[in-house]
């Protein structure tokens, strides 16, 4: 197996060079197709190496035709535009495990799930899958800068939680976390205790939130907003300082369209020198 050209559909919305590696899995993770987007001048500059950004929910990142929410992050278009500013990066999309998404992205088990159900707690196994299985396929076959300073993750909702968890628990691998619309409430606020009890964060954190994240559930909507602001305050208390960037959009909703709009500044911050 190897990286192959992306199998585009007739209604695909991909910009630039997108590759795929089929059948990537391990003992705890069903096989899935990993995606790799290459910067515009990747082929023309064979001696150049690039930072890497890993995106969770990879089926929603580059192509509306594969998105389960009918819209995409537009990471390919965003990174194409950033390349014109001189900011180049390889982007990796890791599709979620469908009905196991919550389990994979949650660092702790939800107490409301019965023992026989995969109700969270798979976050560390997911990071091991990313580090031990996915990252070698990227670093061994693409021209990356594999050190932590040039390796970031970004995700939304539960994907935001696992990005922060990775930065807290595997700082030797990851140096930046994009934490978009984080659902801290879904893990009973576990992330707050982990931030308080871990050594100070050495990397960068982009944290953002919308004011309309859960319009059908007012209490949940307020929890999104309040928890994100509380996490901002806690991260500042730990001394993150200029390595934290926070953005709150009162009109922001819980959808790819909102994350797409905030993605350019998030990547500028995470990829900046």
CATH class: Alpha Beta
The SSE order reads EEEEHEHHEHEHEHEH
User: Mind summarizing the main beta sheet?
Assistant: 9 strands, mixed
CATH topology: Rossmann fold
Structural class designation? alpha/beta
Taking all Cα atoms into account, the compactness measure Rg is 18 Å
Kindly give the count of domains: 1
- Main sheet: strand order: 1-2-3-5-4-6-7-8-9
Known CATH architecture: 3-Layer(aba) Sandwich
Q: Beta-sheet strand percentage?
A: 15-25%
Summarize it:
With 273 residues, the chain is of the alpha/beta class. It has helices at residues 75-84, 101-105, 123-139, 158-169, 190-197, 218-237, 256-271; strands at residues 4-5, 17-26, 29-38, 52-56, 90-94, 151-156, 176-180, 204-212, 244-253. β7, α5 and β8 (204-212) form a beta-alpha-beta unit.
Short descriptors:
globular; 7 helices; alpha/beta; 273 residues; Esterase; AB_hydrolase_fold; 9-stranded mixed β-sheet; single chain; Esterase-like; Rossmann fold
Tell me what the structure shows.
The structure is a single chain. The protein has a single domain, classed as Rossmann fold (3-Layer(aba) Sandwich). Helices cover 32% and strands 23% of the residues. Strands 1-2-3-5-4-6-7-8-9 form a nine-stranded mixed sheet, sandwiched between helices. Helix 1 packs parallel to helix 7. The radius of gyration is 18 Å and the shape is globular. The mean pLDDT is 93.
